[in-house]
């Protein structure tokens, strides 16, 4: 329970969220009374070091406050939203960067959030949203005073959104939003700070391969699809990703103490690239495949003199190679080992392959073991994709974020883009590890208590049995004594 020590009464908005309204300079006092709470969550994903919080607030202190609980199954995390307005009354929470546009990737048939958050509790009827000075109908928008407006994606360009209060003249906030195409711009994935929806992000291209492996050292895990259906195995292999495969995948566990690490897969629709999509990892045994095939298939009719092939950045002579634009390069390659091949066309397009040539006696298990292993670590494996070059070879590496404070990871999630060959290791943070240990300790304490209760019950039962046996023995001895006494009396009488 969050105790609000202010004299201001707590109210409930139509969405069922508790909130209070303060003015700049007012004193905010909060207290968490749950013995399972560890701290108080502040706006901006910050934490206190105690269960008490006292401050004279400013407009920037507007946001949600909650009691931090290590795991929701142990205790709830009650929240309260605090609105703080200045002397002028109604306003908006200032943005982190006032003049730089907010960049968002273009994903068809989705909505985007316009983060105009008022400093006084408002409803959808109190606010209106304009884009390029044209009012957007209310039927096309959703409004949450804690998050802002949510509107459909209109296209790939820069939009000028304006949030305005209907009943307060001159109260407005302008936000620039840039919607870009990921196939042309490799931007950084942005994530709103303070969000509890913490995910890992990975970007794959349409037609690429993807492997999601849930590897828990303690419990059996399985992959859950974006539509909440379950995969029967702990490893999901998608050989050719489609746009319909985009969504949030997670590792689920039948035990309640398991975490559920999640990953949001964004599929990029790539058009008009130089080469057709192909699997970047090539395994071959000289005895089964006398000739090596590098599937550099161009989208136009080309010859081996148009496409350049390199091995470890060393150009191979075109005269000694066989090339078919429908198949790729084909030539004898009896050497054992792992090699990097690069295809370049028109000095504009590039496609990389990792070729492993092994002896047929090597087991498939050893052949597939291409990743390191570490408990509590997330691996994302990348290799340069087919990209356009601007005068030089660029490596377009997708970004992987690990905010991950809300998901304690006992089971390990491994995200492998099988089209890429560079390891980026992202370790867990200290708080997630502490939360995992805390859950294990709670689980051990619960087991200890159950064992102690069982021992106590058995002990009481044993004591009761012993007492009954003693009583029976005493009665038996008393009966024997009475019989002897009667015999003695009879003898004396006789």
From TrEMBL:
Transmembrane feature ranges? 437-463
List the keywords (alphabetical): Membrane, Transmembrane, Transmembrane helix
Quote the InterPro entries the UniProt record gives: Ig-like_dom_sf (IPR036179), PDGFRL (IPR042495)
Which superkingdom, per the lineage? Answer: Eukaryota
Reply yes or no: does the keyword Transmembrane apply: yes
Which protein are we looking at? Ig-like domain-containing protein
| Organism, scientific name | Diploscapter pachys
